[in-house]
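Private note to self, pasted from the team thread so I don't lose it. Backbone tokens:
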């Protein structure tokens, strides 16, 4: 029976502290089922889609069972791609935050071999790597697997598709028999089943249905920005977007408080909703949203579970969820009762892979949204300013004020338009209606999912190849010039640096 609380899964104190530190309130289905099996030292065969939280499902129990005295690698994670290697290594580093002297080494092709050799020589508890580069280190004897205590094959079907399965079998053949083994795969083709029979052996099976569907009436978009730019992009979006009620989802409890305070400081009626609130306070906060007393809730996944408020028109995924099911639950808070809704997802360039996983899982395309420009924001502020000005002029007569301003204009010989501009500045100085003209914006990050990065890379290579051709022409031109000037015999020496020629001439003279 799966648990609904991390503290019931048998994890070590340091792993639980990391879970609490990062604000994870409830394990996902794959975590609840896999962690107890791995904590018992059993082999595991898991069927789960990317984005179901499976990295934590094997990272947390393996960290909990580390031997601090052992200096050689204890855990090996084999992954199909460089990106996944980096992501899994970062996850291990994060979950081992409270483990003393913990080291993890990401090993993948295309990176500097010397830094990897140095890391392995220093001593690491966990190695995460791609099959080809792992075999390179095994053949160099820089990676010793003789004391390995646990091995995980992550996204095995992807390794099969990419043609790495033979390399994987070579690695598996060198694993100690006593080593705990786990394999995770989205599908189970015949070749993967053969690998599990031969190398995984008796194993507990965990299968998680990763198929999810989303409400078709929800308009889904994403904005690409760096982590430190999210708040700026959020406030820009709020300023130009017309919304009724909104829920902003974040990963941790502390983020709910931080973002709530920052939005309140900007004049938005906002409240936090997290697991630290008791039931009565939680209900009171939700009722305030229903009644229109607040417009924005900043919430964690667990706190907002089951929340049903018809006036919620927008959902903002300020932090991308770790699993696809959470994404579906989040955006399901809008578009209710037959109404349309909008869901915006903030992603950093590193999280592009998770975005594609959500698209595959939901079978819906999430379109790119460009953050509002300075011109768009200025136009909106000007419109609101004039709208308010018109309302004020229609609402009341103010003869005394008119007389006061006319008198001020005559006595100081100041044009009435200058006075009006000064008064407008006075009322708008905290929120200027005219922003600087747009230049290259801080948060104009390219859409890495659309192939833009590839196009840029190709254009850079084209430029480089042109430069290379020019250098070659220059060299050939110099070569012809030297040949005609010095003759064929002296052509090579003529191309040498001047100091070298002089040194050789001195030696010849001395001899």
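Design output:
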């Amino acid at each position: 029976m799966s648990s609904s609380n991390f503290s019931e899964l048998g994890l070590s104190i340091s792993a639980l502290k990391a879970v609490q530190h990062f604000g994870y309130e409830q394990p996902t289905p794959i975590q609840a089922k896999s962690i107890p099996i791995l904590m018992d030292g059993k082999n595991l065969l898991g069927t789960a889609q990317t984005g179901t939280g499976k990295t934590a499902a094997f990272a947390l129990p393996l960290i909990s069972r580390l031997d601090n005295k052992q200096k050689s690698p204890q855990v090996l994670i084999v992954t199909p791609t460089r990106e996944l290697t980096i992501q899994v290594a970062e996850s291990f580093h994060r979950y081992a935050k409270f483990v003393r002297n913990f080291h993890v080494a990401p090993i993948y092709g295309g990176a500097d071999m010397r830094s990897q050799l140095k890391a392995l020589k220093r001593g690491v508890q966990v190695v995460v790597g791609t099959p080809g580069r792992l075999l390179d280190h095994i053949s160099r004897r820089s990676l010793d697997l003789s004391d390995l205590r646990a091995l995980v094959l992550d996204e095995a079907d992807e390794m099969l598709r990419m043609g790495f399965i033979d390399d994987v079998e070579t690695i598996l053949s060198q694993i100690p028999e006593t080593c705990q083994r786990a394999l995770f795969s989205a599908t189970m083709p015949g070749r993967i089943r053969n690998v599990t029979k031969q190398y995984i052996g008796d194993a507990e099976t965990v299968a998680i249905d990763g198929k999810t569907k989303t409400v078709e009436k929800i308009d889904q978009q994403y904005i690409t920005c760096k982590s430190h730019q999210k708040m700026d992009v959020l406030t820009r979006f709020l300023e130009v977007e017309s919304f009724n009620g909104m829920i902003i989802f974040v990963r941790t409890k502390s983020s709910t408080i931080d973002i709530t305070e920052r939005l309140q400081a900007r004049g938005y009626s906002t409240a936090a909703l997290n697991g630290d609130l008791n039931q009565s306070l939680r209900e009171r906060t939700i009722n305030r949203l229903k009644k229109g007393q607040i417009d924005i809730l900043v919430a964690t996944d667990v706190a907002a579970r089951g929340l049903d408020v018809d006036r919620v028109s927008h959902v903002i995924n300020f932090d991308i969820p770790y699993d696809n099911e959470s994404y579906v639950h989040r955006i399901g808070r809008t578009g209710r009762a037959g109404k349309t809704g909008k869901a915006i997802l903030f992603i950093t360039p590193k999280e592009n892979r998770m975005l594609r996983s959500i698209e595959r899982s939901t079978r819906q395309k999430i379109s790119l949204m460009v953050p509002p420009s300075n011109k768009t924001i200025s136009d909106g502020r000007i419109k609101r300013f004039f709208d308010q000005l018109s309302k004020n002029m229609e609402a009341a007569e103010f003869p005394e004020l008119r007389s006061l301003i006319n008198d001020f204009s005559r006595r100081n010989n100041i044009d009435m338009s200058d006075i009006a501009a000064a008064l407008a500045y006075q009322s708008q100085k905290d929120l200027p209606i005219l922003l600087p003209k747009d230049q290259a914006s801080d948060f104009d990050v390219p859409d890495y999912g659309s192939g833009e990065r590839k196009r840029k890379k190709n254009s850079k290579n084209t430029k480089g190849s042109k430069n290379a051709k020019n250098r070659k022409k220059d060299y050939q031109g110099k070569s012809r010039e030297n040949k005609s000037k010095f003759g064929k015999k002296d052509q090579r020496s003529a191309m040498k640096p001047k100091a070298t020629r002089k040194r050789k001439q001195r030696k010849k003279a001395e001899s």
